Amino acid sequence: MAMGDHEAALEHYGLARAYAKEEDMLPIETEACRRMRWTQSIRGDIDGAAVLSEEVLRLTRAYIAEQRHIASKAQDAEASLHDSGSGSPPTVPMMLREHWYLGGYENQEVYALKEHGCALRGERRMFERALVVARYQPAAVEAFEEALTKLDKHWRRHGLDAESDAEGADIKRQLHLHLADLYDNYLASADDVIKSQHHAKAVECRHAYEDMVPGSFGADVACALCDAPLGGLSIEDEPLAMTCAWDSCAKMHHFHTRCFNTIDSDANPGVMCPACPPR
């Protein structure tokens, strides 16, 4: 298979997906579907990626349900032993990524939801600008917000927080930034009241991020393009934009939307973040 042969890649992943489904290997089926989605995103087929992303989420939830059923049966068996005077009290284990091909966080649903939102945003590959399809942006918001809710629930259930769960904290920061960017820039509305509500939600998300990473926004931080105060923490501040491709900017540069929109994305297509040096 030649490098960059997306059609051949889709065919191979499709065969793997079909075989895994036939053999009831749910994690492998999920990973094959995930790679098909990546391939569709890379080739710019956001519609195809969105459909596959929904399937990845469905399969992930099916896997979680399957594992919970197995854990519940084991719990019942242990409870029987405990009631009869032997064994120890049963516990249901936390979902762990016991296979390399599962998602990159111990709570698979949180990770799948975050990936789903990114696919709906139109992310394609490292350092490339997203290919935004307007009709998918509200669904991206829903996916990110659900991921936040699930992550908070996961933390409460297992006694975790941003200090004890570095991976979860990183996902939470990304979710807040994605939501702020979406609310400020990608939820089109002709209604001024709704626009104001969206901007207020963006400010709220940036406050949540600022609580985790102080000094990211505000009057003392400069826009990476115009050097004027960035703001972003008051509803009186102008909208802000961010780069939103996978691993696009280690410094998480932010910009005034008006500054970001003046950048010619075709002039340097290999660079996602206009404030970072060419790679």
Task: Describe the protein's architecture and organization.
The longest helix has 38 residues, at 46-83. 55% of the residues lie in helices and 5% in strands. Mean pLDDT is 84; it is low at 88-101. The strands form two sheets. A two-stranded antiparallel sheet has the order 1-2. It has a two-stranded antiparallel sheet with strand order 3-4. The radius of gyration is 21 Å and the shape is globular. It is built from eight helices and four strands. It is mostly helical.
Secondary structure: elements and pairs:
Blueprint: H1 6-22, H2 26-42, H3 46-83, H4 108-121, H5 137-158, H6 166-185, H7 192-212, E1 218-222, E2 229-231, E3 240-242, E4 254-256, H8 257-260
Antiparallel strand pairs: 1-2, 3-4
Helix pairs in contact: 1-2, 2-3, 3-4, 4-5, 5-6, 6-7
